[in-house]
Structures are given as C-alpha cells and as structure tokens.
Amino acid sequence: MTKYIQPILMLLILASYTTLINTPQDQIKVANHSTISKNYLLGKVSPSKDSKFSKIEKPYTLKSNIYMLNEAYLAYTKMYAAAAKEGLDLKIISAFRSFNHQKSIWEAKWTGARKVLGKDLSKAYQNAEARAKVILLFSSMPGTSRHHWGTDIDIYSLEDADFLQGKGKDIYTWLVQNAHTFGYCQVYTPKPETRTSGYEEEKWHWSYLPMAKEYLLEYQKHIKHKDIKGFKGDRVAEKINVIDNYVLGINPDCK
Ligand SMILES: [Zn+2]
Fold first, then answer.
1. What confidence score (pLDDT) does residue 23 get?
2. Which pLDDT score is estimated for 170?
3. Tell me, what DSSP letter sits at residue 26?
4. What are phi and psi of 103, to 5 degrees?
5. How far is the centre of ligand 1, averaged over its atoms, from the C-alpha of 121 (Å)?
6. 207 backbone dihedrals φ, ψ, rounded to 5°
7. What local confidence, expressed as pLDDT, does residue 138 receive?
8. Measured in angstroms, how far is the CA atom of residue 34 from the centroid of ligand 1?
9. What distance in angstroms lies between residue 14's CA and the mean position of ligand 1's atoms?
C-alpha cells in the first residue's frame, strides 16, 4: 500500500501547482458573477470587444460610439423613460472613457497644448503637484476615473450654469428626487457640505451604484498608487494621494 502513497502525493502536488499557475493573478469576481481584472479597474479595456458593455443607442445619446455597462444601461433606459413622461430628456453626453482617452485629456492639459482657465499650465505651474491639482479641478487623472468602469454617465451638459435654470434645472431636480430609485447616485455633491475632498460639484455626473459600489471596493483592495502610471506627471499620484483624496472623495451616500 505504501508504495502508492508517494506517486499519489506527487500527483496532488502537481495538480495544485498547475491550478496555481493557471489562475490569472488579477482575476476579480464581482456580484453579477462576471470577472474583471486590475486593468479593467484602470480603464484598460476595449468596450466594443467586451460583452459586459453595450453601445448606447439613440435616443439616449447623440454620440455615435459610446458605451456603458449592460446593467447600468438597462437601469438608465428605465430612468430615461420615466423622465421622458415628465417631458425631460436625460441625454447622455459621456459614458465609458478608457485610460488612453483620459491620458490624452490629461497630457494635453499637462503640457499646455490645451489651456486651463486661459493658462498654459506647463508655464504657469512649474511645480508638478500644483499643476496636477489645477487639472484635477476639472479632469481625472488617468487610471482614477469612475468613467473607466462603464458605471458612470454625464447627463445633459458639463456646465454648472446650465443646471441653474430652465430645462437643466428641471432635469437636475428630477434626478435628485428620482435617480436613486433606478440605482443612480450623484457622486460629486457640493463641497464642503457633503465631502471634504475630491472634484468640484458635478450636477451632470451620475453613477450606477449596484455595480460602481463594488468596483470601488475592488479598486481599494487591488489598486495602489504604483499602478497609476503611464502618463506625463504620473509621479504626482502618490504625492497628492489621489486614491484617498479623489477616488474616495465622493458623496458618502454613494459608497
Ligand atoms: Zn463625469
């Protein structure tokens, strides 16, 4: 009998070793039983080739090639229909944005190719941390945007003034009262009343919590500052603690 023990033991060791090397290290299971990766949380994904994403159709957007997560899209279409009954048009103007897309926005501002508040930031702010903080008034650092997840959308306009009167005001008032029943939450609420850090208030940015909550938890578990790299000024990420101050600087009701 003992002569069988050694080969059996060898087989068991081999089997467990094979399982170990065949399991990709960054596979993360989420509640809807799909699997995501660390790269996914950083926006390094092609939504047109990924079955977790839907292309947003008319009348929900006027853009031709924008995507969001299937679950978030389904909930959004129900919200759109409910608002439409009140004569309100919740058009999506931005949804999923990739790491590379965010990188092009960030670097245009970092290098001064695109002016911010009328200034070439590369000249106005020699100090990297100060320059990053000005960009962060309006744009996320690549790898830290909730738009990377496909759970978050921008509705109607990107200008605060557009929500202070007329249709925009009606849309915002309706969203504040009703979006939660469809799973949506305004993550960037007024500061400092509701949050002490993070982006300025964004009345247009709404997040589909059933998925986004989970992605935020996984982000906290798996993403470190050293993972936020591959763009100009990436060394600043850790210095300004972009994860605690921006990724987590959201409306507590959306956590
Ligand atoms: Zn947004």
1. 44
2. 98
3. T
4. -60, -40
5. 22
6. -120, 135
7. 85
8. 24
9. 49
Low-confidence ranges of the chain (pLDDT < 70): 1-3, 5, 7-25, 32-33
Distance from C-alpha of 130 to C-alpha of 170, rounded to nearest angstrom: 37
User: What is the distance in A from the centroid of ligand 1 to the CA of 210?
Assistant: 17
| pTM of this structure | 0.87
Query: What is the CA(18)–ligand 1 centre distance, in A?
Result: 43
C-beta separation of 103 from 214 below 8 A: no
Largest separation between any pair of C-alpha atoms in the chain: 86
Which runs of E-coded beta strand occur in the chain? 27-29, 35-37, 53-55, 67-69, 92-94, 152-155, 184-186, 205-208
CATH architecture of 28-254: 2-Layer Sandwich (3.30)
Rounded to an integer, what distance in angstroms lies between the CA atom of residue 199 and that of residue 204? 13
Q: How remote is the CA of residue 137 from the centroid of ligand 1, in Å?
A: 12
How far is ligand 1, taken at its centre, from the CA of residue 95, in Å?
7
Q: What's the pLDDT score for residue 214? A: 94
The Å distance, Cα 152 to ligand 1 centre, comes to 7
Each residue of 33-64: pLDDT tens digit?
678 889 999 999 999 999 999 999 999 999 99
Measured in angstroms, how far is the CA atom of residue 235 from the centroid of ligand 1?
A: 24
Question: Could you tell me the residue ranges of all domains in the chain?
Answer: 28-254
Q: What is the pLDDT of residue 37?
A: 87
**Ligand 1: centre distance to CA 135 (Å):** 14
**In terms of C-beta density within 10 A (0-12 exposed, 13-18 middle, 19 or more buried), how is residue 90 classed?**
buried
| Distance between Cα 188 and ligand 1 center (Å) | 9
